Amino acid sequence: MSANTKEIKRVTTNTLQEMKRKKQKISMLTAYDFTMAKIIDGAGTDIILVGDSASNVMAGHETTLPITLDQMIYHAASVIRATNRSLVVVDLPFGSYQGNSKEALNSSIRIMKEAGAHSVKLEGGKEIVDSIERILSAGIPVMGHLGLTPQSIYKFGTYNVRAKEQLEAKKLLEDALALQAAGVFAIVLEKIPAALGKEIAKKLKIPIIGIGAGRHVDGQVLVSHDMFGMNNEFSPRFLRRYLNLHDLMSKATKNYIKDVQSGDFPNEKEQY
Questions:
Q1: Candidates 190, 199, 268, 270; catalytic one
Q2: What confidence tens digit (pLDDT) does each residue in 161-177 have?
Q3: What kind of fold does domain 13-241 have according to CATH?
């Protein structure tokens, strides 16, 4: 290795625990393909989530439910090939773990072996502890997900903020403690009151990553296509767009079409 080449150290679950201890915020973004993952990893993102949101973002489904385990493995393998630094977490899709801890383990093993992933993520609280413990028994790191859990959208019937009422807030805290006791290395909290996010991050020893959970958790996650402004139809309060790629790409496409139609592209320098 050249003396001028700086070694890139892979983020691990231990890295994240140390970051929480030092009060260093954790960055997390989604990726579903090689090109996007290479950009996000190269920029220094701590965690890349291969989310089942690929069902919406990449395939155009209304919910996350239709995406299959095989499809998740395909997306995850593409992301893994692009990363040198980020810890890669892969969602277990709907139907691949609920109610059957043996199936949860088999699904997780396939993701780790076939995609080369670093960890898996499951939605749910106490009801999935058996699955979490069985997955961990195989040495596979697990991230939890509480609050608004998109795989349960038909149960909730709405994408509104969760745990605003005291009873649900109490259950969410109990679920978070149960996941921590089961051995998850971190938990995503989605669309809950900021005060509850702050309370959970303070009470738990493991990192808490928020998406619409306020600023006092240990890190933040966004869907990259939303953050880059490629999707202009989704505007929740928690989303900050750092670019407007939708308009930039649309303008570039129109310019390309115009140049092709006029004969301006390719010019003399752009041909052999």
A1: 190
A2: 888 889 999 999 999 99
A3: TIM Barrel (3.20.20)
Separation of first and last alpha carbons in the chain = 38
Q: What is the mean pLDDT of the chain?
A: 94
The residues spanned by each domain of the chain are 13-241, 245-272
Q: Which residues of 18-38 are buried (b: 16+ CB within 10 A; e: fewer)?
A: ebbeeeeebbbbbbbbbebbb
Other beta carbons within 10 angstroms of residue 83's beta carbon come to 23
Report the distance separating Cα 6 and Cα 86, nearest Å. 16
Measure CA 260 to chain center: 39
- Decide if 190 is catalytic: yes
Single-letter amino acid code for the residue at 48:
I
Quick one: pLDDT band at residue 155, thresholds 50, 70, 90?
Answer: low
Decide: 213 and 190 in contact? Cβ < 8 Å.
yes
Token reading at 268? 């003399």
Burial class (CB in 10 A: 0-12, 13-18, 19+), 267: exposed
Radius of gyration from C-alpha coordinates of the chain: 20
Q: Which two tokens stand for residue 243?
A: 């670019």
